[in-house]
Automatic annotation (TrEMBL):
One GO process term, biological-process aspect: rDNA heterochromatin formation
GO cellular component, one term: cytoplasm
Record family assignment: Belongs to the class I-like SAM-binding methyltransferase superfamily. EFM7 family.
Main location: cytoplasm
Protein name per Swiss-Prot or TrEMBL: Protein N-terminal and lysine N-methyltransferase EFM7
UniProt-annotated binding residues for S-adenosyl-L-methionine: W62, G89, A90, A91, D111, W144, S168
Known function: S-adenosyl-L-methionine-dependent protein methyltransferase that trimethylates the N-terminal glycine 'Gly-2' of elongation factor 1-alpha, before also catalyzing the mono- and dimethylation of 'Lys-3'.
Subcellular location: Cytoplasm
Record GO terms (molecular function): N-terminal protein N-methyltransferase activity; protein-lysine N-methyltransferase activity
Encoding gene (name): EFM7
InterPro entries according to UniProt: EFM7, Methyltransf_16, SAM-dependent_MTases_sf
EC number of this enzyme: 2.1.1.-
Keyword annotations of the record: Cytoplasm, Methyltransferase, S-adenosyl-L-methionine, Transferase
Top-level class of the enzyme under EC nomenclature: transferase
Organism of origin: Suhomyces tanzawaensis NRRL Y-17324
Amino acid sequence: MSDDVISLEGGLFEEPEEFVQPPPEPHFAHYQRKEVNGTAPSPSEVTLRLVGKSPLWGHLLWNAGIFTADYLDKNAASLVQGKRILELGAAAALPSLIASLNGAKEVVSTDYPDPELIQNIEWNFDNLAKEAEVSPYSVKGYIWGNDVGDLISSTEDEDNKFDLIILSDVVFNHTEHDKLLKTCRDTLKKDGKCLVVFSPHRPWLLEKDLEFFTRCEEHEFKAEKIDLVVWKPMFEEDEETAEIRARVYSYFLNPQW
């Protein structure tokens, strides 16, 4: 080989073994609340801290989370006020935060028990509580399908269960559908609802996403479609699938027991 040619096989640009890349810094997003019946909500803006990077995708503010927050603000009188609220897979917990601003009796916000994710949700609640009056809340690490003893004191006592369970952008976890539904079945009141919102991030697996709404029948739920809107897709890299990825589906799961 000529002396003028530099071989890259030796890892010329590789970092030394002792070098460790620092984790990405947290970053911030600002959610603008919309008027409801001509009345501007207060506070009008909610600041969210997002983790720097997460294999669980908690570092992004997704369209489904924004849609869910909008929907809770708009329908707070029937869905939130005086209700016990549980969010599963909360990530930055925007829907939980909006519920806490709308007079919920209690808000329990959960995600996978990763310390960074849980601490970040706590930061978002603590920060909001400095600016506005919020409902009583707790933040918990929880793995779907596990014992619900940390979420409710008894599965036999209806008063301890939740009136509304929020599942925002979690149905892409196809292998976890039964676990999600089991947790919902164990913790939801007989007259409660699950609010399920999602976007098809992998268009070729949309049918797998939608299977959640038939599989729910095995857990004594019946799906009720609320809406289908088309927004801007989160990522622009694939124009052919942009319209599908821009969709935001919303459903209720209604108990049948």
